[in-house]
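Case study B.
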Amino acid sequence: MLIFGLAGGVLVTLLQWTEFHFLVLEHSVAIYGALIAILFAGAGLWLGTRLLAPRERIVEIAVPAVPTSRFDADDNVRERLGITRRELEILKLVARGLSNREIGATLFVSENTVKTHCSRAFDKLGARRRTEAVQRSRELGLLS
Amino acid sequence: MLIFGLAGGVLVTLLQWTEFHFLVLEHSVAIYGALIAILFAGAGLWLGTRLLAPRERIVEIAVPAVPTSRFDADDNVRERLGITRRELEILKLVARGLSNREIGATLFVSENTVKTHCSRAFDKLGARRRTEAVQRSRELGLLS
DNA sequence: GGAGAAATCATACGCAAGGATGACGCGGGG
DNA sequence: CCCCGCGTCATCCTTGCGTATGATTTCTCC
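Model:
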């Protein structure tokens, strides 16, 4: 800002000096203006690259390097959330896109039981919909 | 570039016109030059920020990162399945666990519209439930 | 300029899902 | 022994979801 102000002052002085030389020529004002334009366009460009360039954009690169031997890691998460094994079992089937009825048929229990487990699991996950529960489970690493 | 060229032409014309008005005044050249200076300084600054690609700093972040190296591949998959951009947009929100009502509020459309898009998308995916649609989408690489 | 795709919205119906509540049996610790 | 966590099942009720159908608008393409 200070530099810019100083430049302004210098320019005004320069301006006072140069106008006497240029005014005697025809079309001098056009040339004069063009010179000013070029000069300040350059100055602006320079300033733009100098002052605003350090803007860095952080780019996230997906690193495949997360095999993270999670064979029982989800079990820890499960315990921490107070989710029972049965509830997690049902959650996995929910994440597969099965309906409550299909889950019941798969696990040989009634649809009501599935609903009960779902309700409790959703409650512990802070989810109100099964899709939300799936999303939360993924974030928490509950699902492989 | 075209816009910049046009702006240049307009400026030259404006320059020709204004000089006759300003030349009769004392110090008019100074004001004129200052205007040009400010204008082109701004232009240069704008160009500087616009043309110079923001330097990117690559930061490696451990991300669940499905091994699938697809950057725009989902667009190909989308086309292949005949799923429209809007439908995919809604699918992504479905995968986030949002309800139809919330999706509508997010995209500023009615819940009915969301339902329509969902139905068509589910149909194209061969899914009958939203959870199933999410699962299918993940398998097909439709979702990041 | 008309055909068609896409997006938007509405209405209505049926079913799935979710919540609340109660109950029963089983197993393990206090 | 009795309590408690867990899994199981049921009923009632509300809400959300999915489908069908029709309409309008906008855009693109021929």
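Strands of chain A lie at 57-62. The remaining cases will be described in the next quarterly update.
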